Amino acid sequence: MNSVAIITVASQGIGRSTSVRLARDFSAIVLATRNASALREVAETVKTTGAVPLVCDLDLSKIESADLMYC
């Protein structure tokens, strides 16, 4: 079964831990946050679980950034 999880603030703390944990159960993980360099590190960890990470460098405190989630 193909499934996707979307994690915001995925580069640190609870968001990072949640991303890695959910990657075990989902076939793809959308990682979104403002810190692109830290997000790439999380993406590499997600890959080791077999899930496919999609990195979205976004600032979700700005409403217009939500439109970019259609990446």
Give a verbal description of the structure:
This protein has 71 residues and is α/β, with parallel strands linked by helices. The chain has one domain (4-59): Rossmann fold (3-Layer(aba) Sandwich), CATH 3.40.50.720. It has helices at 13-23, 36-47, and strands spanning 4-8, 28-33, 52-57. Strands 1-2-3 form a three-stranded parallel sheet, covered by helices on one side. The model has no long low-confidence stretch (mean pLDDT 87).
Within CATH, the superfamily carries the name NAD(P)-binding Rossmann-like Domain
Q: Looking at the structure, what is the overall shape?
A: globular
Proper CATH architecture: 3-Layer(aba) Sandwich
Give the domain tally: 1
User: Beta-strand level of the residues, as a percent range?
Assistant: 15-25%
What is the H/E order? EHEHE
Low-confidence stretches: none
Residues in helix, %: 25-40%
Measure the end-to-end span: 22 Å
Radius of gyration over C-alpha positions, nearest whole angstrom: 11 Å
- Rounded mean pLDDT is 87
DSSP strand tally: 3
Q: Sheet bearing the most strands, described?
A: 3 strands, parallel
Broad structural category: alpha/beta
CATH class: Alpha Beta
Physical arrangement of strands within the biggest beta sheet: 1-2-3
Count of alpha/pi helices: 2
